[in-house]
Protein 1
Amino acid sequence: AVDARTSAGDPSAAPEQGGVAEVGVNLDLVPANVFTNSNAAITTLVGLVYDNLVHYDRDSLDPKPALATEWSATDGGRTVTLKLRQGVKFHTGRPFTSADVKFSLATYTDPKWNGQLISTAKVVTAVETPAPDQVVLRLDHPVSNLFDLLATVPVIDSETAGDIATGKRFVGTGAFAFESWRPNTDLTFTRNADYWDGAPHLDGVHVRVVPDGQSLLAAVKSGQVHLARGIGYRDAEAAASTPGLRSIPLDGAELQAYVGLNVTAPGLDDPKVRQAVAYALDRDRIIKEVFRDKGYPASLPWPRTSPAYDEELDGRYRRDVGKAKALLAEHGAPVPEIPLAYVGNDPVFTAIAQVVQNNLAEAGITVKLEPVDSTQFVKQLIGAQFPGLWTTNHSWAQLSPATLTVSAYPFNARRNASHFSSPEYTGAAEAAWKLPAATGPEAVAAYRKVSEQLLDGGFLAEIGVVLEQFVARDALQGVDWSRRRELDLGKAHLR
Amino acid sequence: MSTTDLLTISGLEVSFGDVRAVRGLDLTVAPGEILALVGESGSGKSVTARAVLGLLPPTARVRGSVLLGTRELVGAGEEALREVRGRSVAMVFQEPATALNPVHTVGWQIAAVLRAHRGLTRQTARRDAVRLLDLVGIPDPATRVRHYPHQLSGGQKQRVVIALALANEPDLIIADEPTTALDVTVQAEILALLRDLRDRLGTAILLITHNMGVVADLADRVAVLHRGELVEQAPVDELFAAPTRAYTRELLAAVPRLGHRDPALPHTGADALRLTGVTVRYGDFTALSTVDLHVARGEVVGLVGESGSGKSTLGRVAAGVLRPDAGTALVLDTDPRSARRRFGFVFQDPGSSLNPRMTIAECVAEPLRVHRAPGDHRARVAELLDAVRLPADFATRRPRELSGGQRQRVGIARALALDPDLLIADEPTSALDVSVQASILALLTELQQQRGFACLFISHDLAVVDSLAHRVAVLHNGRVVEHGPHHEVLRTPTAAYTRRLVDAVPLPDPVAQRARRTGLADVPA
Amino acid sequence: MAGPGVAGRARCHPARLPGGAGVADAVGDGVRRRAVADRRGPRGVGPPDPVGRQEVNALLRGRGLVGLVLVGVVALAGLVGPLLVQWDPYQQIPDANLLGPSAAHPLGTDDLNRDVLARLLSGIRVDLLISLTAVPLGALIGCAIGALATFTSALDVAVQRLFDVLLAFPQLILAVGLAAVIGPGTTSVVIVVVAVEIPIFGRLLRSAVLRVREAQFVTASEVIGGGRGHVLRTHVLPNSLEPVVVQLALSMSVAVFIEGAMSVLGIGVSPPDPSLGAVLTTSLRYLDLNPLFALSPLAVTALLVLGFQLIAQAANAARG
Amino acid sequence: MIGYLLRRLPSALVVLWLASVLIFLLIRAIPGDAAAVLAGADAPPEAVAAIRAELGLDRPVVAQYLHWVGGLLSGDLGRSFLIGGDIAGLVADGLANTATLTLAALLLAVLTALVLGPVWAATRNPWVDRLLTAFHTASVALPTFVTGVVLILVFGVFFRLLPTGGVPPAGLLDRVDITAQYLVLPAVCLALPVAGVLTGFLAETLRGELRQDYVTTVRAAGVRGREIVVRHALRGALPVAVTTLGLQTGALLGGAVLVESIFAWPGLGLLVEQGVTRRDYPVVQVLLMLSVTVFVVVQLLTDVAHAALDPRIRLGGKR
Ligand SMILES: Nc1ncnc2c1ncn2[C@@H]1O[C@H](COP(=O)(O)OP(=O)(O)OP(=O)(O)O)[C@@H](O)[C@H]1O
Ligand SMILES: Nc1ncnc2c1ncn2[C@@H]1O[C@H](COP(=O)(O)OP(=O)(O)OP(=O)(O)O)[C@@H](O)[C@H]1O
Ligand SMILES: [Mg+2]
Ligand SMILES: [Mg+2]
């Protein structure tokens, strides 16, 4: 995190006014997905246009004021009162009030938008607006990740919300106002001079869609864009050594690469075999060679800054082919060939899949690679249809640990792609969630239980914590991002 | 004879692999001279002609010297040759059917050639093209310039090729069988045209022909070629009067003449071919109008008429290639298409009717194969090639390795392969020299007598028709203007048109022909 | 002065003139011919094969030979090359990530620590298989359909429209669809290539056939009584093959692209099996590190393109 | 000509209908649907079901088909599942870009082929022959995704002469010189393989044409070598070239998918590729229908061109 701060801006340079920041993204907007935090264009749009009620710094889970300036919990955490910032205006000029908070929360809870924290949002049984600057949230039961929700739900303008689904208009209170979107081409944003946190230095932001990774790299190298999102790890590494360019790993917005196991598959139904898989993985090599050291190997999802992080538990699985073989011997029967699904046109997971295949072969497990396209992959994932193994990444472990187990589908205690369920795991997960606070000794103990269940269940073999990165030109300074990888150029400037 | 010779060929050798087509030929052509080059089919006439302008296929090896004035043409560069071609020396190709580009109009092609050596505008070139077509006697030239080669009759194509050669008024015209496809009246016009060119512009002509009548009519001097070698050359009168070589004598003896055959007996058998009220239109143009014609079994009917009169069209209707707009064609009492196994058809253009990728043996054997004829096909092919006087080793050659006359004989052999009951032959001997022609005619007569097949014999050569046919029909502008027993129609014609035709037949005797031409005497045929 | 003309006119060869005899025998040819008429007879009266002796001979000379050698070199490299390389194409060599060319790894190593040369050589096999089986198969089917369809105009219209539909699908979309139905892997690559080539050859041949059909020798064969099939086989097809030969050379050499594009989408030859396309697509991401990595599959493709093209040129010239 | 086209119309309509059925079924044969994409990786089954219902994907396929065709017939192309907007608008924008790109590439390729093909067929200079052989080999052997990357690196990054991708910010019609700058790299990249193939075909058919007898006739008349090739032989060689061109239209549209992605050129190729991977059925259906229509038209034009170029077919007369 310290690194990121220094690389993100040179505080000594006096920020210059004006200019349009050119941003390149490799994927285009999917309006119906704006609340799912799922791709570079969406996180760029949401980061620039919308504000949240609270804000997390990148190295802690203590909420900081944003649109809400004060908050207090009563009733054992079942009533939360928020005081709202005054004088904030939407880009349409309309003042922001408590009704908008209510509307935003209600929208987020609508299943149509697939907000990932929907299970947490549903705990909020009522939103009361006693005053324009006051919101009262009534909860079904206390939740430890309520502030994750408040830091995630974008505050949207109720009058123009109907235009979101068609991509016509996105109105928020953020530092930049949405101007236009040309599908597959670009998005334009202009400066919000009335921004409550100080008008941005930039005149605007122009986001261009450049689907090809090599072209995106070329665009940032040639200076056509100042900031590129979605450049491969190897390319980002190379770019970082180019004069005038730097790579910015998104600390605090960690992702996790993992191998999932269907615990009902022949062979994988034995926890010993699953543990053998976990022992066989060469995490160090994958992190080093595939992720170019942008991350660290891990046996558990938690990043090092997470309250759930436990060094001892996290070191449980290191590559140990001998142990893996021993476990397989204990299993007795030979393990049948296991299919491994991954997104075929994703170079990162194509590489990981082949390394995994190689690793498991050394331990004595034959793996058959099954590349599928991304849509099919998602379908199989949420339909829990993988016949054996799969590999991809997940997020949500960078926020409150409970969010992971209730919101991230692979970890969902009640229903997950691994077909894994055990009363112990469900119990541990529920307990961690229903705590009134995300931090503190009580929480840490609850998280430890969850971690142990994860390690023993072995339905997910974590590979490591990895970081997405921006590649930026030195000309653009003051680049910031949220813990959900949302781009923040509110304090950025060109020089 | 002198240094002023226009063209001097010396020691010319041309070979294709092992085939030595021309062997040490020496020949000269003086300015304004008309030299006739005669000789058997395949003797190397066309090859010699092409060698002069460097137009042989890459497989040919050429040695010796060809001087145009003092300019050496053998081995000259393409650009040097290009300057000579068309302007100093022009060429009329033997087979007009393939010599023209099928996808451009004839007017366009003539204009392109006109513009090759002269900076004419498009319009003037167009106008000149019309003029040239008119010059070579193509009726309605203003319309014809817009026609494509496949819309012209054989003779019309040949005249277009002549027009191409005349386009740039060359010093020397090498004319390879320029009149083979022409009926006698048009032939006479073309000969007059050539003579006029020589008289007016001093154009020299190297005339390759097998028609002794044409030689007698036009040539100053005659050179006789035999198997690639020059066997005799002499001024025309001398040669005709006293040929020194046996070969030349035989050549002259083989010349068919009108009225030399006894009248044939009338035939009354069943019809092998019956055309009733046949009318064919090409767009607005009526090529045949209500033609009635029948050929009895065992009978040979000659069909004569001027170029473009509709002879080939009629032949194509009879063969079922073309459906008439009105009227019917019955072959051996059925539709021509169902009778195909039982008749043979000889195309007017021998070159384009042979598949270039097939060997000669394959071409000839095709009917046998198609109809699964019993017996040894190889032996049959050998027999047929022999019958048309082609050496057996030609069997493995491809059509383009043959001379014009040789290809024509392949067509005849193919038509005869299945021992047909009816033969429809469109100018089957037009490219043959008199000696080979005589043997083909003898063959046909012999077969006819033995097997008694019927034959529709289309030809513009009245003498040939007279020597073969029982009956003759005369076609003029798509109508039968006269028909009857051969001796009556050709010796005592009643229709004015027929009389004109008969009168135009050149006599294979230079003295008599000259006399007739100059009107000093009216020598009867 | 005595020019060559004088000599020419004086020169004749009485000795070579045949003596006497009738018209038929007046010329030497006749005599000789009669004598040989009963011997074995001419050969080759069967149907002309489209690729005959002439073509084969042409391939053994000049351009054709160069082409054959080029394709042969590639084929040989694919067949015996892998045996000569010390590395296994699947072996992930520890700590050999993206190495540049060296003595141990002449073309370097790839992102998964495998020897590029070993993978390249083994990869040739898959692509040769596709080039030499799928493409000719597609060409054959396409030509057959295209040619047969010209028989009846109704069928022709139907087939051409069908081809329109097939051609209208961008190749990759077709590939995605087919792979989804049959499942990814080499078989689906072969099927996609066949499916892609059929309409191409069908249409190409058809247009040539339409032209050749107008030729006089086709009419000649019809008059002889040749049925449609016969005319098509013996006359029309052999004379329509020129563009087909050119296209065949092209398709055979660029089948690697279809395979490559499919492996990019993850529906081609499944990893970790090596193929030229797979090597090429991974290599592009490492252009800056090790250009040889990317150049080598391209060089192989170029050799194939050049080789097949020279062969096609020679074949057409021989047939011309 | 118009009569000819009218006669072809019914079969073309039948094709369009068949194609519509085929397309409809084919894209549904691909496993996975847009609901999964829209729901995202963490969605519960209810959410997916809700989305399916909202998109109408839960209805019987026949009903979906009839609904779609009904829409088409009433001029409603439908809405994209993922992009949100009206397909008509999307397609109109994309079409302008793709048409500009492919037509520019087509023009480039045709011009190259018309210049190089005859030169290659007629040359006697071994060096020219080798040079053109090399050009042909390189253009055919280099896939677009390689040329694209190389072009961008050389002209966009190294020399910085041209933009590395994208469309002119103010639109294609704003300033021709700017548009040209943006267009040149993708057009060259797209045109190169097509140019190579066309050149090869044209040269090879011209060589065949130059072996014909009529060429001897014009040579004998002293027509210049260049003229023989360009004016006399070319016409006979064109039908094959036209057919190839028709086929290469497919290569152009297919290549557009890659080129548009490499050069961030927001056209239909990109749209269709995205549509397929994201199962955006309405978009794919409309685009593929468009593509089929284009092909039917191209084929009709090819046939017309054939007849126009070969009088034996045009005036074939009676057979
Ligand atoms: N391209 C070739 N390849 C091989 N042999 C050839 C080729 N062209 C001609 N010949 C042979 O050369 C000889 C001379 O042919 P040429 O065409 O000069 O005969 P010609 O005297 O013109 O006969 P015709 O009167 O029949 O036209 C023939 O035997 C012929 O078969
Ligand atoms: N396809 C066609 N389209 C238009 N006119 C044609 C076509 N074919 C032939 N003709 C015309 O029909 C007339 C008769 O042609 P045909 O070929 O029957 O003549 P012919 O008597 O055989 O002449 P020749 O002796 O010159 O071969 C000619 O004037 C010719 O120009
Ligand atoms: Mg000749
Ligand atoms: Mg005729």
Protein 2
Amino acid sequence: MTESREPNTEQQEEWQPKIIGFLCKWCSYAGADLAGGSRIPYPANIRIIRVPCSGRVNPLFVLKCLENGADGVLVSGCHPGDCHYSEGNYYARRKFAVFKKLLEYLGVDPRRFQVSWVSAAEGEKWAEIVKTVVEEVRAAGPNKQLSAPVDKCSGAPVKRKHLKND
Amino acid sequence: MRIGVFVCHCGTNISGTVDVAKVAEVARGMPRVKFATDYRYMCSEPGQNLIKDAVKKHNLDKIVVASCSPSLHERTFRKCVEGAGLNPYQMEMANIREQCSWVHHDKKEGTKKAIDLVKMAVAKVGKDVPLKRMRIPVEKKVLVIGGGIAGIQAAIDVSMAGFKVVLVEREPSVGGRMARFDKTFPTLDCAACILTPKMVTVAQNDNITLYTYSEVEEVSGYVGNFEVKIRKRARSVDMDKCTGCGICYGKCPTKVPSEFDMGLGKRKAIYVPFPQAVPNIPVIDRKNCIYFLREKCKICQKVCPPGAIDYEQEDEIIKEKFGAIIVATGFTLFDHSVYGEYGYGKFKDVVTGLHFERMANASGPTGGKIVRPSDGREAKDVVFIQCVGSRDEQKGLPYCSRLCCMYTAKQALLLKEHNSEAQAYVFYIDIRAAGKNYEEFVRRVQEEYGAVYLRGRVSRIFEKDDMLIVRGADTLSGAQIEIKADLVVLASGLIAQPDARKMAQMLGISYDKNNLFTEAHPKLAPVETVTAGIFLTGACQSPKDIPDTVATASAASVKAIGLIAPDELTLEPLVAKVNPDICSGCLACLQVCPFSAIEKEDVKDRLTKEMKIVAKVIESVCHGCGACSATCRVGAIDIAGFRDEEILAEVEAIT
Amino acid sequence: MTEVLKPGSSEPPENIYLPHLAAIKEIREETQDIKTFKLVFQDEELRKSFTYKPGQFIEFSIFGVGESPFCLASSPTREGYIECSIKKMGKVTQAIHDLEEGDIVGIRGPYGNGFPVEEMKGKNLIFVGGGIGLAPLRSLIWNVIDRRDDFKDVIIVYGSRSIADLVYKDELKQWQNTPGVKLTLTVDPGGEAEDWKGEIGFVPTILEKVNPSPGNSLVITCGPPIMIKFVLVTLNKMNFSSQQIITTLERKMTCGLGKCGRCNIGSVYVCKDGPVFTYAQIEQFQEEI
Amino acid sequence: MIKRLQEKVGKLLREKKVALVIGYEMAGDGISTTPCFIEREDEVERLVWNEHCVYNLSRYLIETRELASSPSPKIGVVAKGCDVKSIIGLIQENQIKRDEVVIIGMECEGQFDVEGERQFKVEGLKLKDKDKDKDKEGKLLEKCKACEVHIPKVYDLLIKDDRNSGAPEPQSPEVNAYAQVEELEGKSQEERWQYWKKEFARCIKCYACRQVCPLCFCPQCIADQTLPQWISPSPSLKGNTTWNIVRAFHLAGRCIDCGECERACPMKIPLRKINKKLGKEIKEMFDYEAGLDSEAKPPLADFKLEDPEEFIR
Amino acid sequence: MTEKIVSKEDLKKILEGLMKTSELLAPGKEGDLVLFKPVKNPEEVFFAYPNSLKPVKEFFFPPREELFKHEIREGKVGLSSEHQENRKRVIWGVRPCDAKSLLMFDKMFDGEYKDSYYLEKRAKSVLVGLACNEPLDSCFCLSLNAGPHAKEGLDVLITDLGDDSYLVEGITAKGEELFQGCGKESGEGERTRKKELEEAAKKKIRKTCQPPPDLESFFEDPYWEKVSRKCISCGVCTYLCPTCFCFDLSYEGRDCIRFWDSCSFSPFTKMTSGENPRREKKTRYRQRVYHKFSYFKKNFGEIACVGCGRCLRECPVKVDIVEIVNQCSKDKTKD
């Protein structure tokens, strides 16, 4: 069921980029944990989704995020050679290399989709990357591309009429 | 569906930055959430009891715990909800500490983010399906492939723990390379003295079945349940009847170069490779035996007192099941004939370190004398050249073979011990002596035994007046050097066995570009492979000296024992699953699976009733990495616990 | 020349796609994957005015997820609520199974022709059901039991894969105890338990054993296609004519209004002209059922 | 050429080497051709070959798979050099077996754009003399201009062009196959977005692009799935864009550039321009080209340690 | 019914006027394609087209239409539905075949269950027809009770007389209203000219569609397997067909939407259980043919085809439905 958003009191507030991160649970997620454990502050714009491996991240996830209105997506995994599953990140690297080229070619702002390697020891790096990505996405502005509202068949203005309500 | 949300204060760790009461309050309004509360320490016993009580009281079936990182307490809370009678995999954690309260300082912002994180967890748990841990029976037996020191040690260790082991060796005797050595660095124990007792143990231990002159031919199955075909090659000698008296090879008229002695000595067509061989039972080399070549002779059969010679014997195929496999297939030497400067392997008196070992060995072909193979004259001036093949990306290997520095030093020492007149010259690039007492040893060789160490490469070796002229540079002095040598000993690098790649493919383990087997993780899983249940020891993984080899053998044994000790394997259910109805059979998943956990299957389509190819997951082999799922274009393969639907629910929850 | 049609000019006509809101009053777990949902319309007027026939169906809407057709399992003789028994199969049914009492859903309908209850009066009725196929029959069975005098003997043969898969377990007992109603239960071989008192065997076999007479009788059957197929063979053997056999057909019925174009069999739209057909009608169809 | 094609196909059928041959016949308009399925020897006269045989018939191989496993096992398919690439792709992805197909390779000098007639009167475009007519280049399909496989790389039978008997294989003109892609690459990000937005807005989700594609063989396209719903089924700018991105990505490293998607699209969305771009990138980044080797690992199911990663932080 | 002669200039003025008072839709070029779109400038209105790529059905039965929205707050559900403003809509340049197709839509969307979304749009629209002087080879309207100058379903018909003047024939009051106060009476010469044009156009239509009377008995014929073989099961023919109306309903977020669907697609009839009565391609193709030439006729008294020829022109593999329908009777007699 689609729950309606909370009353939009925030609308007046300044726009804040919304970023979704897909982090592999062995390296990057642990890196983010380390950033937490080390109390390294970074912007609160990112929401992390934990995945087993960067190789698990289907490029369609990224597309879904952008389509649903996320302003940026960050996929982060282990450095090459460090993958817990030995090769997952290599496959991810290929997929995202191609996918990124595709999005760019279609005119999607490249800042909206980023990839990083962050190890479990790189808490600092994680915080830095979040900062950078947030700033870049902020500069890119609200995502009006893939999440553009649907176009109406004809441009006729509409009036809304409540029919049923309890 | 009735979801319960439990928000942890973590003392003030979370509540300092996040308004936990507000989070719980908002959570109460989330779809399908029937109960939400906050508590000071959720992971504490009262905290866990709070969850259990709420499950009962509010009839909850799915749980969200908003607290710290799942890396820390996922196990705790899974156990907790399991204790409450729920499926442990219908619990999700929202990491509002590491990802929120500890990194954000603004309470309003922190609270807002914490709410989002809870929302995601609620959305995910809503899609979670109950999962069951998998249990599979385990064959309590270990296969060790390779009967060198690595395999011997592994077999002994496993057998000592009370488990059955099958040790397969392709040579007629176990012992491997180490059996050829004279003494071992840095302690100079006699190799035979320390190895032979182990070889005997292998032969005599009831838990160990030894198949020599045998090879592994096929491996199928998966962790806990490997099915292996072993080819026991025909020895032409009945092992049960043979007493090892040795009359047969005493009388055999055919002499051929001995492989064991690196061609420096001879053996018969019926032979044991070396006196201490285990089993001490000869084998007929059918390629050279007169009977097998011309159907004549039969002398050995005539002289054999127990009548053990059996010319009709055939290869035997043994099929056995194993719970774990230890791979100890060892190494071979780099072929230096690629190097023109060392004479392309054509000069008889340019030999490898292993030749030197055989000569130095008192029971070897020269009776312990270091001689020139060309004329048998005792060698006086001997040049050792290091890094032959190693660390040479152009013609040789990119890596360092690790033990050449040490064995060269040892051989320089042995040279002097065998002949006090002799002089050793060692051309080296760097000395790598990074083991316990290694550096001291090398220094002793130089200082006490007078070995001359020259830093530099040899540019050419040529023959002159039945001597070898070794021309090189001493880069330290900058001088050009020419040494007139009786013998040149090359410290050839260690490389993978010629059939290593075939072996890896048969086992379904990965190998690097040098055909060395790849460990599952270089640091944290150095003896595991990506294929569950298959472990590595010794030089088949990377060049290792004896101490390291023995250490990895014991490590691999412990891993194998740990695997087969329980009656059943309990596996996490977070594995891939194929929907055969929509699988297109392109098998891209099979190609990306790092664990070979996917196989091709022919099935009848449920609806069209036509035969088709689909992918099938071997659940006990799958690690749940998800590479298959992300590669599948149809979305026919999904990862339990991280299903597409669950991940997309998280996305949708916050967008 | 044709004039353009004129809808009512002031008020827009009723929106045929807009569901009525209904609250889930009660959820009963029938089997592991079947639940019965009792629904009460939010609108009080509608609660009174909503009438339907056994065999009709509704479009059940989970807002934001989707809409699916389900037959009405309740009897119109029990007023004030409707009931649907729903098996967990796909996206919508899964979402329905996740619902809790008190949740609000959307209902459009009733649609379809329903069973010819009037024609059944004064006749012996033989109900043959399998699995969840009992749901539409239940509507009719209660209807018959509640007006017991209008009908003659009632025979019910109902089977499922196993005891656990039988639906309406409590009601089966009530039917059994109703005078003039003969209920035979069966489970597939292997689906029984030690204390099972019913039959063991597939529905067509048991039907043959029950051996109802075709005289002044109608057979109403509903269940998995494979069951129906063999039930027909059995009935044929017992000399039932195809006019005497009534069943409901299943198709993907998206709109329920005969408009969306997918549930037709020939020129007949299952959602509008069905889903109840006599076997005589079905025999006329060219497409395979 | 047609004569020999008919003879060879007749022989295949007569000798029961194939159960069915998929080829081209004249369409009702007397200009274009249409796919046809020949099962009997006496039907071979329907077969034609000309510059309007644009369809990639390998698409039908999957549907006839069932037939291929019946007693008379093989399916013959008339294939141009480019079509053979998709046959290789199908073998590579286990959709068909090489020994179940008889590839009747056609030497092809390029296909003409019959579709030029669309919307307007059918006139002017008549089957002209086989001799080189002046505006041939002008009518040549875009994809044919940079063709490198006038003679298929793999075939069981080859029907050579009569005119070229003995002549060396026609040389590909020096054409930049990626000119259109590069032109678009040269534009600004915003310009590219506006361009594609306008194109995708027209999409009516008829899925002709998918249905005509020889490599879109999934039993249930991801676009038709509801659990989860990856792509909204209705045509809207948002859903259309997603669909087109997914379609292109799912063909990355697999598309053999037959251009059928773009040709089939009634709304004339320049789909080939996207596929081509991905082909270019994959060639540059991973040194892989689709449709050349049925034994090769697909590039997205493969990796090299030294794969590019400048885009990764 | 009045007839008038208007000049090109007059038409432009009328268009300009309509733009202000109504929503005006007319054909325009988009690259090589001719599509109906809102008119922003009368200059862009394109007259010289055989027919638009998409039929005008999209303005009554949009490819995607929001039916209602839902909102859930604290367990309560609110539903709201949008209704388009009742502003007059003029669709300019409708070909007679497309106009006729709308009469079939009327039958579908009216009846026992009245589809307000369709009917509202229908009621507020005025159809200005443009007679076909240059039909295409693929047109076959004549054999289906229609024709290049047919008036059925239109409110007004314009015929281009070729000399920058147009004959305007009012058909309904709604239509005549648009041309009030402009142009001049038509003369005999002009009427003759129009007749000539009509006859000439009719002569150009050589393709005929002659469904056999015994189509029903053909249902199980292996013919369908054979003729459907090359069909690729895409939705081109159905989506571009002016008489195809199949649709699907779905929720997208908070919107309940209706959108085009096609009987060519395999999932169209696939049930959740996986069962699919029309899984085989042949059954789907047969459904399309039978729906048009048999079922619709049975239910509504006429063949659901107007002979616009779009399906022939746009089919990616040149499946010729007319040929298939005509042939199936011949085949019958042959066997």
